[in-house]
Amino acid sequence: SDSSSSSSDESPARSVQSTAVPAPASQLLPSLEKDEPRKSFGIKVQNLPVRSTDTSLKDGLFHEFKKYGKVTSVQIHGASEERYGLVFFRQQEDQEKALNASKGKLFFGMQIEVTAWIGPETESENEFRPLDERIDEFHPKATRTLFIGNLEKTTTYHDLRNIFQRFGGIVDIDIKKVNGVPQYSFLQYCDIASVCKAIKKMDGEYLGNNRLKLGFGKSMPTNCVWLDGLSTNVTDQYLTRHFCRYGPVVKVVFDRLKGMALV
Question: What is the pLDDT of residue 38?
């Protein structure tokens, strides 16, 4: 099992205690109080070359526009002269840079017409997504640990718990500090799906004045075993007896409501 890089014999509250007064979550992220779909920042590219295949257009558009910022997906819609491309960016400023730089732009020998796309970034069968944007449980770097970078210096354990607990059960939060100032954090969830949901929703969003940088945290060696699917009649003593054959059991933390335990 993976864990954050905090030591297991240190409680999360002690390992990340801060003297700063936590700001209410509503002040930190006012636009995310409701679980609304993530806003998209896309451009529509028209007047595409008729003879080019959809695959070559998707690849070409990705490489043409990734210079302006992080591209989350490229889609091709329509056919023949009516065919157009949609390029979605992670940040609004990247969308604006692409729009400003695209006046009179030539693409595969054609002068393309680029306008802002007003609409959601829905999944399409005819799309290209960079590997880093395919955030799911099968991602090659997927772990149960969420990396949270670019923290504000006043960020506390309670701030992070209040913001990220809606994506799943939190096992541990470890804030890494330099000279007492928070720099980044490792937040461990009960499952990988929760990490994926957090990254999709919160990467690039503001925490105070800073944009959060989220990703999968590296799996770290741990002396804890995480268990799920336990019945309510299982006892701490039973788990201790069962696992002591592999070595001394120091502690068992059992959440009977969720059927989860750490040994």
Answer: 61
Banded pLDDT at 29 (limits 50, 70, 90): low
Q: 226-262 maps to which CATH number?
A: 3.30.70.330
Residues 6+ apart with CB under 8 A from 162: 22, 25
- Helix, strand, or coil (residue 216): strand
Fold matches, 41-120 and 226-262: yes
Architecture of domain 41-120: 2-Layer Sandwich (3.30)
| CB-based contacts of 176, cutoff 8 Å, min separation 6 | 5, 182, 183, 184, 185, 186
Q: Give the residue among 233, 157, 147 at the shortest CA–CA distance from 184.
A: 147
DSSP-derived 3-state class of residue 57:
helix
* pLDDT at site 190: 81
Q: Which residue spans within the chain are E strands per DSSP?
A: 41-46, 71-77, 84-89, 106-107, 110-111, 113-117, 127-128, 145-149, 170-178, 181-189, 206-207, 210-211, 213-216, 226-227, 253-255, 260-262
Domain segments of the chain as ranges = 12-18+135-216, 41-120, 226-262
- Domain 12-18+135-216 - what CATH class? alpha beta
Show the tokens assigned to 24: 């209410």
DSSP 212: -
